[in-house]
Amino acid sequence: MSEQPLHDAPPIDRWRLDALLETPVKGKLWGLPSIAAFLGVSQDTARRWARHPEVPIYQPPGTRSYCAFQSELRSWQRSKRQD
Q1: How many Cα atoms sit within 13 Å of 73 on the Cβ side?
Q2: What confidence tens digit (pLDDT) does each residue in 35-72 have?
Q3: Please, what is the average pLDDT of the chain?
C-alpha cells in the first residue's frame, strides 16, 4: 500500500491535535463533586462558575443538584484557553 501525500489536509493546530489524541468525552455528569473533578477545580469554584450563563453547568428547576455534559464542558474549556 502506498502512502498518498496529504496536500489537501488542513494543518494540525493544537486544538485539532487535542481532538485527535483525546478519548471522546461524552455523557452527563451529575453533582458538583463529579463536575468539579472533571474540571479540576473545587466544588466551590464549580458552584460559582455555574452562576454564569456562559458556563455549561445546569441546575434543573426545582432541584438542588447540578448537571453538565462532558462534551460541553470540554468545549467551554477550549474556548477559555483562547482568551
Answers
A1: 24
A2: 999 999 999 999 999 999 999 999 988 989 999 999 89
A3: 82
Separation CA 25–CA 57 (nearest Å): 16
**For strand 28-30 and strand 67-69, is the pairing parallel, antiparallel, or unpaired?**
antiparallel
Angle at 76 between CA 15 and CA 82, to 5 degrees: 50
**DSSP percent split of the chain into helix, strand, coil, nearest 5:** 45, 10, 50
- The pTM for the full model equals 0.66
| H-helix segments, the chain | 14-21, 32-39, 43-50, 70-81
Cell of 14: 493544537
- CA angle, residues 81, 52, 62, in degrees to nearest 5: 135
Amino acid 15 reads W
